[in-house]
Amino acid sequence: MNSSNKSSIAFPIVICAVALALVAATLSGEAAQLRLDPSRASIVTAKHAPIQVIPDANGNALMTGEAQFISTNWSGYVLPEFITGERYVSAQATWVVPTVVFKKKSAVSSNWVGIGGFCENMRCKAKDVDQTLIQLGTAQVAESRTETDYFAWYEMLPEPSVATTLVVNPGDVITASLTCDGDCTGSQSWTLSMTNETTAMNWSQDFDYASPNLSAEWIEEAPTGRRGILPLADFGITTFDQSMTNGVSALLNLADSIVMRDPHGESSNVSNLDSTLDGFSACYGPHKALKPCSFVPLP
Fold first, then answer.
1. Can you tell me the distance from the alpha carbon of 155 to that of 108, in angstroms, rounded to the nearest whole number?
2. Which phi and psi angles does 143 have, rounded to 5°?
3. CB-based burial of residue 215 (10 Å sphere; 0-12 exposed, 13-18 middle, 19+ buried)?
4. 3-state helix, strand, coil in the chain (%, to 5)
5. Which of 219, 223, 235, 244 has most Cβ atoms within 10 angstroms of its Cβ?
């Protein structure tokens, strides 16, 4: 992974099974790694993984009665090339950073927009999942009753997540975008940008990354640690809106929708689309049974 812009300070995101925390960069610009008493917990690196679908008896993707994919780590909407016939060279979304609530265990949720990491066909067997994924978003961490963390990040699989210098807080309105420059063939150059509309601060950086451009997605995720998918933090309800792909408003009525039932017993349902077909809400559920979800407009 090569960067053509060295101005921002990047450092790995580390998540602990007991206390998930973002480590601040030192004044010298060197990454400071979280160090904990080994008797308390081990350190694992957070990943924003490709979709992990729940398989049916034949190994194909299990679907709800409403023909939604059921995943253990993703919820949201995805525009795939196998449905639309399009290759995706840009994507954008706006959301409000949700407030997370601690519930007996450390947990994390992530809002992001990205390209890649979805199924290459409707069967979506394990071998059919695109293992490339370029993405950026915000993470919301409930560490304890008195500690929460909120931060912005980007990731280009198989590399780990990297925090950006953009400061985010619950309630902030965030617009994030990624664009493949030029004709996006051969050697690909990508521009990743994120603006905190509330504070008028922004972050942008250029990267080289090879993507087959097979899907664009807007996702509420339970990230993955070394031992598997992490508990999903209670984010209440969060809305993605003003979604775009390839320079125009995204028509999510052509998209596949995904609901989440994570391994720890939490869930995330998605609403129907808004009237402009470019927005939806995701709703946290404390149990695997999906909580009803209705669209809530951005403020």
1. 16
2. -90, -40
3. buried
4. 5, 45, 55
5. 219
Segment 263-294, tens digit of pLDDT: 999 999 999 999 999 999 999 999 999 999 99
DSSP H/E element including 15: strand 14-16
What ranges make up the beta strands (E) of 81-188? Answer: 90-96, 107-116, 133-142, 148-156, 162-163, 173-180
Place of tokens 């609901």: 259
Side chain identity at 209, as an amino acid letter? Y
**Tokens for 257?**
């929708």
- Rounded-to-10 torsion of CA 69, 75, 81, 82: 0
Residue with tokens 């919820």: 75
**How does residue 186 score in pLDDT terms, banded at 50, 70 and 90?**
confident
pLDDT at 101: 95
> Residues with Cβ < 8 Å from 278, sequence gap 6 or more?
241, 242, 243, 244, 249, 250, 251, 252
Closest listed residue to residue 74, CA positions, set 44, 45, 117: 117
Give tens-digit pLDDT for 107-158: 999 999 999 999 999 999 999 999 999 999 999 999 999 999 999 999 999 9
Q: Which of these, 119, 75, 138, lies nearest to 281 by C-alpha position?
A: 75
Separation CA 283–CA 299 (nearest Å): 17
